Amino acid sequence: MTSTDFTQLPLKPELLQNLDSLGYHQMTPIQALSLPPVLAGKDVIGQGKTGSGKTAAFGLGVLNQLDVAFWRVQALVLCPTRELADQVTKSLRALARTQHNVKVLTLCGGMPFGPQVGSLEHGAHIIVGTPGRVEEHVRKGKLDLSHLRLLVLDEADRMLDMGFQPSLDAILEQVPARRQTLLFSATYPKHIRQLADRVMQQPVMARVEETETAPRIEQSFHWVANEDERLQALVKLLRARLPESAIVFCRTKEMTVDVAAALKAEGFTAVALNGDLEQKQRDQVLVRFANRSVSILVATDVAARGIDIEALDLVVNYQMALDTEVHLHRIGRTGRADQSGRAATLFSDKERHRLADLESYMDTQFVEQPLPEPKATNIPKPPMVTLQLDAGRKQKLRPGDILGALTGEGGIDGKSVGKIALFDQTAYVAVQRASAKQALAKLSQDKIKGRSVRVRRI
Ligand code: ADP
Ligand code: MG
Fold it and tell me: Mean pLDDT, the chain, as a whole number?
């Protein structure tokens, strides 16, 4: 018997027999993770990509605890669309075919209301439906959920994306507080986590997810004895990797400032990004990092939220994230768009338990590695340089004006011009380092849109 045998589960014999005849010989990974807690009556959050077998994961939970002799609605499965509700109904019926008289009823919008009321009057054990229509039946007193024992939110992420939150809330008010709640989703964004926090009780997480992204990111873990060593280790690591674009994650604002200063003193181009920056400063930092005139961004998680920079060579966790999700989010920034990525994590003894959490979450073991050997070369300068102009959108400046001024007579090659970023009162243009002097001279001499613009190199 292996851990993916259905036979090890406390399933009713008739359900078990039927699985084989459905061609379900072994549990899929999401089933192996979620079925034990589901059958134990726990609240479970199941996350796995489409086609991973989530329906049977909750379906067996629904059917196993069903009391067929009790003619009341005992389970409600909510789905985002009618198609999905129909599929789930079909799967439930297939799973239930050896249990006699199990009544599954579908309640979806876009279908006549009256016949649904008629079917409800005949009684049902399990309701599968879309939130809007189910809520309507509840509101009109046609659907009694007071005996509900199990609530399933299938494809919860899509339900929220489609705006079903108000219907969900209304339904939730009508179901018993003592119940089992199962939530299935292909993704697990923040609004789903908030929903789970509200409607579930100490949910067990069952996720099979990272297999798609994790192998593309090569993770290394390096032990440091203390805080001095941490900084030395970071410098050594960066000297070995010499990234053109890297983010170093710190846990506090103060730390970002200290680390960025230390890296600058070592000869790296590094800037701190944290919540203390004013909007203008933040814009400038992000522009310089994105246009490749700064190699290293030292950031807090909060400050780095929402920045989307492609082709990061390296993510460094200067300190381990407090939470596994945050760690995965950090390292997910490297290796975008099917490029392989690299993430290095520094940890001290105090952070070992976080490493253990991560290992159990990813179901793997990480071997602590020595730091890579620094390269003997000088630290290369970033390929680009940023020039700042004291005019922007308010002065009706457009990217073409800047490009035109740069590449006009006596100017630089268009190929040497990088990203141009316009703001209300200022603009930034990246140029290749070798052309920086000439570009600066050209922009300072020339008029742009009939006025002379002050330009400086930052
Ligand atoms: P999901 O809801 O995760 O997108 P489904 O529950 O619709 O995935 O399952 C996808 C397909 O896999 C279905 O055709 C289903 O019958 C099949 N399936 C589910 N569990 C098993 C299993 N243990 N063994 C074989 N096939 C399975
Ligand atoms: Mg599904």
Answer: 91
Q: Which residues pair with 152 in a beta bridge?
A: 77, 182
The pLDDT, as a whole number, for residue 191 is 85
Over residues 21-42, the mean pLDDT reads 94
**Whole-model pTM?**
0.53
Structural domain for 116, as ranges = 6-208
Most ligand 1 atoms within 8 A of CB, residue of 6, 25, 28 to mutate = 28
Whether 378 is covered by a domain: the verdict is no
Cα 117 → chain centroid: 41
- In this structure, the answer to whether residues 423 and 310 fall within a common structural domain is no
pLDDT in tens, 54-88: 999 999 999 999 999 999 999 999 998 888 899 99
Angle at 144 between CA 194 and CA 102, to 5 degrees: 95
What phi and psi values does residue 103 have, to the nearest 5 degrees? Answer: -105, 115
Contact 303, 331 (CB under 8 A): no
Say if ligand 1 is within 6 A of residue 29 CB.
no
56 lines ligand 1 (CB under 6 A): yes
| Structure tokens belonging to residue 78 | 């909510």
Burial of residue 214 (number of CB atoms within 10 Å: 0-12, 13-18, 19+)? middle
- Which ligand 1 atom is the nearest neighbour of the CA of 23? 25
Counting the structural domains of the chain, the total is: 3
CA dist 310 → 106, 336, 340 (Å) = 45, 7, 12
Give residue-wise pLDDT tens across range 257-302.
999 999 999 999 999 999 899 989 999 999 999 999 999 999 998 8
Residue 6 CA: nearest ligand 1 atom is: 23
Q: 336 and 262 in one domain?
A: yes
